[in-house]
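Before the break, one more example. Copy the sequence into your notebook; we will annotate it together after we see the structure.
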Amino acid sequence: MSNSYNHNKVLLFLCMVVGTVFIASMRYGAVAVSWQEIATAISKSLGKPSSAMTLHESIFLQIRFPRACLCLLAGASLAVAGVLLQALFRNPLVEPGLIGTSSGSAFGAGLYLVLGASFQIHAGEWTLPIAACLGGILATLLVVFLANSAETGKTSITALLLTGIAINSLFMSGVGFLSYIARDPQARSITFWNLGTLSGANWEAVVALSVVFFLCMLLALRHAKELNTLMLGEEEAAYLGTNIAQLKRNVILLNVLLVGVTTAFVGVIGFVGLIAPHMIRLVSGSDNRHLIYGSALCGAILLTMADLTARLLLKPAELPIGIVTSMVGVPIFILLLKKGKSYFF
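Here is what the structure looks like once it is written out:
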């Protein structure tokens, strides 16, 4: 009862922080939007506008509001993916892109940016997200296929981890090659996208990521108890009735959907899926049923704060958000490595 009560207090606190940073994200940036302008913009959008919207009202409805929503969803998606992979590998140092999804998405996006015009590949504003998502799926499938043992037909966690590192290096070298052969505007686009950006946020992206996130969230919660048994070891989990092979497939599929679709819309953003689960684990323990909820809220908070920093630090210019998350994430990752076994399950 005490643990459940403490966890509920943590969730309530995180919900209040989410609301605070969400409001701040809508209000502040290169241009500050007042409460009056927000209220007027909402009233005009819901009813018949008595007059045309002002510039600040349009900024709020068409840029700030969808960006704030997409930022929350992206941070939550990456954090949940982090929980799932850390539980699967039984290691809190695992990051969601470790099995190739992020690097594959980066390669798919780079391939379209450099060669899309030459092959006349175009599907409107969805072309880049589709190319990135297909790249992430391809890379992850390649990791799973290569990690599968020819003798036993099973996928070892260690083999999956090592194969993922190798495939990540392969696809990132591909991104480097595309940047090398690209013209200057294309190279800048690849670089900026690979560092993460929410500047292209729109309501279509918000709806698409919302569907993927909430579907994956429900499926992740269904696997929470099985992931808890996996912390005892694969053999012990199997004795308790967990289908290990199916669990691995389902967790990897959820990771591909969460990371692939998120990366497709906001670019490559690292460390959120590493930091958020670890912060929640420190206050709520290692029960994945609690970690999934808490990490989703924590990831949303972290990415929104990073986005605010990226917008305000050099305004009116904007930093790529991946730079901010890396500046925070790298010291924490080094701290985890220094602490060693005391941070492992």
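Residues 55-89 form the longest helix (35 residues). The CA atoms of residues 84 and 251 lie 6 Å apart. Try to locate both features in your own notes.
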